[in-house]
Amino acid sequence: MPPPAQDVTVFYKTMLDAADNIELVVTLPTFRRPEHLLKTLRTVISQAPGCPFAIVVMENDADGLEGANAAKMFFADHRINALVVVAHQRGNCHAYNAGWSMALATYPNLKAIAVIDDDEIASPDWLDSLISVHKQTHADLVGGPQLPDFEDKTRNDQKRHPVFMPHYDTTGPVPILYSSGNVLVTRQVLDAMPCPFLDPLFNFIGGGDSDFYRRCREKGFTFAWAKDAWVAETIPARRTEASWIRARSLRNGAISALLEHRAAPGFGGRAKTIAKSLALLAVSPFRGVRLWKSGTLPSAGLYHFYVACGRLMMEFGMVNEQYRNPEKN
Q: Residue 149 forms beta bridges with which residues?
Protein backbone atom coordinates (compact mmCIF):
# COMPACT_ATOMS: atom_id res chain seq x y z
CA MET A 1 0.00 0.00 0.00
CA PRO A 2 1.60 3.33 -1.04
CA PRO A 3 2.01 5.89 1.75
CA PRO A 4 0.47 9.33 1.23
CA ALA A 5 2.82 11.84 -0.35
CA GLN A 6 4.64 14.19 1.97
CA ASP A 7 2.98 17.20 0.35
CA VAL A 8 -0.56 16.03 1.21
CA THR A 9 -2.22 17.10 4.44
CA VAL A 10 -5.56 16.26 6.04
CA PHE A 11 -7.85 19.30 6.26
CA TYR A 12 -10.99 17.69 7.69
CA LYS A 13 -12.25 14.21 8.51
CA THR A 14 -15.53 12.71 9.65
CA MET A 15 -16.36 9.06 10.31
CA LEU A 16 -19.79 7.44 10.28
CA ASP A 17 -18.52 3.86 9.84
CA ALA A 18 -15.28 2.29 11.01
CA ALA A 19 -12.48 2.80 8.47
CA ASP A 20 -12.12 -0.97 8.08
CA ASN A 21 -15.73 -1.21 6.88
CA ILE A 22 -15.33 1.18 3.95
CA GLU A 23 -15.34 -0.75 0.68
CA LEU A 24 -15.75 2.08 -1.82
CA VAL A 25 -14.28 5.58 -1.98
CA VAL A 26 -15.39 8.41 -4.25
CA THR A 27 -12.52 10.80 -4.96
CA LEU A 28 -13.32 14.34 -6.04
CA PRO A 29 -10.54 16.76 -7.06
CA THR A 30 -11.41 20.44 -6.84
CA PHE A 31 -9.80 23.71 -7.86
CA ARG A 32 -11.50 27.09 -7.31
CA ARG A 33 -15.05 25.89 -7.96
CA PRO A 34 -16.61 25.83 -4.48
CA GLU A 35 -20.18 26.52 -5.62
CA HIS A 36 -20.23 23.70 -8.14
CA LEU A 37 -18.37 21.42 -5.75
CA LEU A 38 -21.37 21.62 -3.41
CA LYS A 39 -23.71 20.70 -6.28
CA THR A 40 -21.53 17.69 -7.04
CA LEU A 41 -21.41 16.60 -3.41
CA ARG A 42 -25.20 16.70 -3.09
CA THR A 43 -25.51 14.18 -5.91
CA VAL A 44 -22.72 11.98 -4.54
CA ILE A 45 -24.13 11.63 -1.02
CA SER A 46 -27.47 10.55 -2.51
CA GLN A 47 -25.88 7.47 -4.10
CA ALA A 48 -26.82 4.01 -2.83
CA PRO A 49 -24.11 1.59 -4.01
CA GLY A 50 -25.10 -1.11 -1.53
CA CYS A 51 -21.97 -0.89 0.62
CA PRO A 52 -20.40 1.60 3.03
CA PHE A 53 -18.56 4.30 1.10
CA ALA A 54 -16.57 7.45 1.79
CA ILE A 55 -15.88 10.65 -0.10
CA VAL A 56 -12.38 12.08 -0.42
CA VAL A 57 -12.18 15.68 -1.64
CA MET A 58 -8.76 16.78 -2.91
CA GLU A 59 -8.22 20.54 -2.69
CA ASN A 60 -5.58 21.65 -5.21
CA ASP A 61 -5.48 25.33 -4.25
CA ALA A 62 -3.41 25.30 -1.08
CA ASP A 63 -3.49 29.09 -0.88
CA GLY A 64 -7.19 29.85 -1.34
CA LEU A 65 -8.71 26.64 0.12
CA GLU A 66 -12.18 27.64 -1.11
CA GLY A 67 -13.08 24.08 -2.01
CA ALA A 68 -11.70 22.64 1.23
CA ASN A 69 -13.69 25.08 3.34
CA ALA A 70 -16.87 24.52 1.34
CA ALA A 71 -16.49 20.74 1.64
CA LYS A 72 -15.80 20.99 5.39
CA MET A 73 -18.99 22.97 5.97
CA PHE A 74 -20.96 20.56 3.80
CA PHE A 75 -19.71 17.42 5.54
CA ALA A 76 -20.29 18.97 8.96
CA ASP A 77 -24.00 19.14 8.09
CA HIS A 78 -24.32 15.60 6.70
CA ARG A 79 -23.83 12.11 8.09
CA ILE A 80 -21.25 10.71 5.72
CA ASN A 81 -17.77 9.21 5.80
CA ALA A 82 -15.62 12.00 4.43
CA LEU A 83 -12.07 13.19 4.15
CA VAL A 84 -10.81 16.54 2.83
CA VAL A 85 -7.14 16.65 1.91
CA VAL A 86 -4.94 19.38 0.49
CA ALA A 87 -2.61 18.51 -2.38
CA HIS A 88 -0.02 21.24 -1.97
CA GLN A 89 1.60 20.68 -5.36
CA ARG A 90 -0.48 22.30 -8.08
CA GLY A 91 -1.64 20.13 -10.94
CA ASN A 92 -4.40 17.70 -11.84
CA CYS A 93 -2.18 14.63 -11.59
CA HIS A 94 -0.93 15.65 -8.16
CA ALA A 95 -4.53 16.01 -6.96
CA TYR A 96 -5.53 12.56 -8.22
CA ASN A 97 -2.43 10.93 -6.75
CA ALA A 98 -3.05 12.60 -3.39
CA GLY A 99 -6.63 11.39 -3.21
CA TRP A 100 -5.96 7.83 -4.33
CA SER A 101 -2.97 7.37 -2.01
CA MET A 102 -4.80 8.90 0.96
CA ALA A 103 -7.86 6.73 0.33
CA LEU A 104 -5.72 3.58 0.38
CA ALA A 105 -3.96 4.66 3.54
CA THR A 106 -7.15 5.67 5.36
CA TYR A 107 -9.51 2.88 4.31
CA PRO A 108 -7.41 -0.31 4.18
CA ASN A 109 -10.19 -2.64 3.04
CA LEU A 110 -11.56 -0.62 0.16
CA LYS A 111 -12.29 -2.57 -3.01
CA ALA A 112 -12.54 0.25 -5.55
CA ILE A 113 -12.22 3.99 -6.09
CA ALA A 114 -14.69 5.98 -8.16
CA VAL A 115 -13.84 9.38 -9.59
CA ILE A 116 -15.99 12.39 -10.37
CA ASP A 117 -14.88 15.97 -11.09
CA ASP A 118 -16.04 19.17 -9.40
CA ASP A 119 -17.77 20.42 -12.56
CA GLU A 120 -19.99 17.34 -12.84
CA ILE A 121 -23.34 16.15 -11.49
CA ALA A 122 -23.82 12.43 -10.84
CA SER A 123 -26.91 10.65 -12.14
CA PRO A 124 -29.06 8.99 -9.43
CA ASP A 125 -27.75 5.48 -10.18
CA TRP A 126 -24.20 6.51 -11.07
CA LEU A 127 -22.28 4.39 -8.56
CA ASP A 128 -24.68 1.47 -8.75
CA SER A 129 -24.32 1.36 -12.55
CA LEU A 130 -20.51 1.42 -12.42
CA ILE A 131 -20.46 -1.39 -9.87
CA SER A 132 -23.05 -3.45 -11.75
CA VAL A 133 -21.06 -3.34 -14.99
CA HIS A 134 -17.89 -4.24 -13.08
CA LYS A 135 -19.63 -7.31 -11.66
CA GLN A 136 -21.07 -8.28 -15.04
CA THR A 137 -17.86 -7.89 -17.05
CA HIS A 138 -15.20 -8.43 -14.34
CA ALA A 139 -13.38 -5.47 -15.91
CA ASP A 140 -10.66 -3.86 -13.82
CA LEU A 141 -11.62 -0.32 -14.83
CA VAL A 142 -15.12 0.86 -15.77
CA GLY A 143 -15.87 4.23 -17.35
CA GLY A 144 -19.07 6.11 -18.04
CA PRO A 145 -20.29 9.03 -20.18
CA GLN A 146 -19.60 12.66 -19.33
CA LEU A 147 -22.62 14.28 -20.94
CA PRO A 148 -22.25 18.01 -21.66
CA ASP A 149 -24.62 20.42 -19.95
CA PHE A 150 -24.11 23.74 -21.71
CA GLU A 151 -24.61 26.91 -19.73
CA ASP A 152 -25.58 28.56 -23.02
CA LYS A 153 -28.54 26.40 -24.05
CA THR A 154 -28.55 27.93 -27.53
CA ARG A 155 -25.38 25.92 -28.22
CA ASN A 156 -26.88 22.51 -27.48
CA ASP A 157 -26.15 21.55 -31.08
CA GLN A 158 -22.49 21.30 -30.01
CA LYS A 159 -23.34 18.07 -28.19
CA ARG A 160 -22.88 16.40 -31.57
CA HIS A 161 -19.27 17.58 -31.85
CA PRO A 162 -16.66 14.84 -31.22
CA VAL A 163 -15.02 17.01 -28.56
CA PHE A 164 -18.12 16.63 -26.39
CA MET A 165 -19.41 13.19 -27.39
CA PRO A 166 -18.80 10.06 -25.23
CA HIS A 167 -16.19 7.68 -26.56
CA TYR A 168 -18.58 4.70 -26.54
CA ASP A 169 -22.36 4.27 -26.73
CA THR A 170 -22.84 0.65 -25.64
CA THR A 171 -22.41 -1.02 -22.26
CA GLY A 172 -19.81 -3.78 -22.16
CA PRO A 173 -16.08 -4.47 -22.59
CA VAL A 174 -14.06 -1.83 -24.45
CA PRO A 175 -10.41 -1.70 -25.56
CA ILE A 176 -9.41 1.22 -23.32
CA LEU A 177 -10.72 4.33 -21.55
CA TYR A 178 -9.67 7.94 -22.11
CA SER A 179 -11.02 10.17 -19.32
CA SER A 180 -10.70 10.02 -15.55
CA GLY A 181 -13.70 12.28 -14.93
CA ASN A 182 -16.06 9.32 -14.55
CA VAL A 183 -14.44 6.01 -13.78
CA LEU A 184 -14.30 3.10 -11.33
CA VAL A 185 -10.80 1.76 -10.58
CA THR A 186 -10.54 -1.53 -8.72
CA ARG A 187 -8.16 -2.29 -5.87
CA GLN A 188 -6.21 -4.75 -8.02
CA VAL A 189 -5.22 -1.92 -10.33
CA LEU A 190 -4.23 0.40 -7.49
CA ASP A 191 -2.11 -2.28 -5.84
CA ALA A 192 -0.33 -3.18 -9.07
CA MET A 193 0.37 0.23 -10.59
CA PRO A 194 3.47 2.11 -9.43
CA CYS A 195 3.26 5.46 -7.71
CA PRO A 196 2.68 8.14 -8.69
CA PHE A 197 -0.40 6.69 -10.36
CA LEU A 198 -0.73 9.59 -12.82
CA ASP A 199 2.53 10.93 -14.21
CA PRO A 200 3.02 14.60 -13.12
CA LEU A 201 4.53 15.25 -16.55
CA PHE A 202 0.94 15.61 -17.75
CA ASN A 203 -0.15 18.03 -15.02
CA PHE A 204 -0.63 21.03 -17.27
CA ILE A 205 -0.84 19.51 -20.74
CA GLY A 206 -3.54 16.92 -20.06
CA GLY A 207 -3.42 13.25 -20.94
CA GLY A 208 -2.29 11.89 -17.58
CA ASP A 209 -5.39 9.72 -17.41
CA SER A 210 -4.90 8.36 -20.93
CA ASP A 211 -1.27 7.58 -20.11
CA PHE A 212 -2.38 5.77 -16.93
CA TYR A 213 -4.87 3.66 -18.90
CA ARG A 214 -2.23 2.83 -21.50
CA ARG A 215 0.09 1.55 -18.78
CA CYS A 216 -2.77 -0.39 -17.18
CA ARG A 217 -3.47 -2.10 -20.50
CA GLU A 218 0.20 -3.01 -20.83
CA LYS A 219 -0.09 -4.81 -17.47
CA GLY A 220 -3.05 -6.81 -18.75
CA PHE A 221 -5.89 -4.97 -17.00
CA THR A 222 -9.26 -4.84 -18.75
CA PHE A 223 -11.80 -2.10 -19.40
CA ALA A 224 -15.57 -1.74 -19.71
CA TRP A 225 -18.13 0.97 -20.44
CA ALA A 226 -21.26 1.64 -18.38
CA LYS A 227 -23.65 3.64 -20.56
CA ASP A 228 -26.10 4.28 -17.72
CA ALA A 229 -23.42 5.51 -15.30
CA TRP A 230 -23.52 9.01 -16.69
CA VAL A 231 -22.53 12.31 -15.16
CA ALA A 232 -23.52 15.73 -16.47
CA GLU A 233 -20.53 18.01 -17.04
CA THR A 234 -21.21 21.74 -16.83
CA ILE A 235 -19.79 23.44 -19.93
CA PRO A 236 -19.18 27.21 -19.66
CA ALA A 237 -20.22 29.31 -22.64
CA ARG A 238 -16.61 30.08 -23.57
CA ARG A 239 -15.97 26.38 -24.18
CA THR A 240 -18.46 26.37 -27.05
CA GLU A 241 -16.54 29.03 -28.95
CA ALA A 242 -14.86 27.93 -32.15
CA SER A 243 -11.41 28.95 -30.89
CA TRP A 244 -11.71 26.78 -27.77
CA ILE A 245 -13.01 23.77 -29.68
CA ARG A 246 -10.20 24.14 -32.21
CA ALA A 247 -7.61 24.34 -29.41
CA ARG A 248 -9.08 21.26 -27.70
CA SER A 249 -9.00 19.32 -31.00
CA LEU A 250 -5.36 20.26 -31.57
CA ARG A 251 -4.58 19.29 -27.99
CA ASN A 252 -6.22 15.88 -28.44
CA GLY A 253 -3.95 15.25 -31.40
CA ALA A 254 -0.84 16.46 -29.58
CA ILE A 255 -1.54 14.22 -26.59
CA SER A 256 -2.13 11.17 -28.80
CA ALA A 257 1.28 11.68 -30.45
CA LEU A 258 2.98 12.16 -27.09
CA LEU A 259 1.46 8.96 -25.72
CA GLU A 260 2.62 7.02 -28.77
CA HIS A 261 6.17 8.30 -28.23
CA ARG A 262 6.08 7.11 -24.63
CA ALA A 263 4.81 3.70 -25.71
CA ALA A 264 7.46 3.33 -28.43
CA PRO A 265 10.48 5.54 -27.69
CA GLY A 266 13.43 5.75 -29.99
CA PHE A 267 13.96 6.57 -33.64
CA GLY A 268 11.82 3.74 -34.96
CA GLY A 269 8.87 4.64 -32.79
CA ARG A 270 9.14 8.32 -33.68
CA ALA A 271 9.27 7.54 -37.40
CA LYS A 272 6.19 5.35 -37.08
CA THR A 273 4.29 8.07 -35.21
CA ILE A 274 5.21 10.72 -37.77
CA ALA A 275 4.12 8.44 -40.60
CA LYS A 276 0.80 7.84 -38.85
CA SER A 277 0.31 11.58 -38.32
CA LEU A 278 0.94 12.30 -42.01
CA ALA A 279 -1.45 9.51 -43.00
CA LEU A 280 -4.15 10.91 -40.70
CA LEU A 281 -3.66 14.35 -42.21
CA ALA A 282 -4.02 12.93 -45.72
CA VAL A 283 -7.30 11.15 -44.96
CA SER A 284 -8.74 13.85 -42.70
CA PRO A 285 -10.77 15.54 -45.49
CA PHE A 286 -12.49 12.25 -46.30
CA ARG A 287 -13.11 11.45 -42.64
CA GLY A 288 -14.43 14.97 -42.13
CA VAL A 289 -16.95 14.63 -44.96
CA ARG A 290 -18.07 11.27 -43.62
CA LEU A 291 -18.47 12.75 -40.15
CA TRP A 292 -20.50 15.64 -41.53
CA LYS A 293 -22.76 13.35 -43.56
CA SER A 294 -23.38 11.18 -40.51
CA GLY A 295 -25.65 13.93 -39.19
CA THR A 296 -23.27 15.80 -36.96
CA LEU A 297 -22.36 19.51 -37.13
CA PRO A 298 -20.82 20.92 -40.32
CA SER A 299 -18.07 22.46 -38.15
CA ALA A 300 -17.28 19.01 -36.73
CA GLY A 301 -15.99 18.03 -40.16
CA LEU A 302 -12.73 19.82 -39.30
CA TYR A 303 -12.14 17.76 -36.16
CA HIS A 304 -9.96 15.05 -37.74
CA PHE A 305 -7.95 17.70 -39.61
CA TYR A 306 -7.19 19.56 -36.37
CA VAL A 307 -6.28 16.31 -34.58
CA ALA A 308 -3.79 15.44 -37.33
CA CYS A 309 -2.36 18.97 -37.22
CA GLY A 310 -2.02 18.74 -33.44
CA ARG A 311 -0.08 15.49 -33.79
CA LEU A 312 2.33 17.06 -36.27
CA MET A 313 2.71 20.20 -34.18
CA MET A 314 3.76 18.04 -31.24
CA GLU A 315 6.19 16.10 -33.46
CA PHE A 316 8.00 19.27 -34.48
CA GLY A 317 7.79 21.19 -31.21
CA MET A 318 5.21 23.67 -32.45
CA VAL A 319 2.64 23.20 -29.66
CA ASN A 320 2.36 26.33 -27.56
CA GLU A 321 0.62 26.51 -24.17
CA GLN A 322 -2.69 27.54 -25.71
CA TYR A 323 -2.95 24.24 -27.57
CA ARG A 324 -1.32 22.13 -24.88
CA ASN A 325 -3.91 23.05 -22.30
CA PRO A 326 -6.96 25.01 -23.50
CA GLU A 327 -8.77 26.46 -20.52
CA LYS A 328 -11.19 24.05 -18.91
CA ASN A 329 -11.95 25.92 -15.73
A: 234
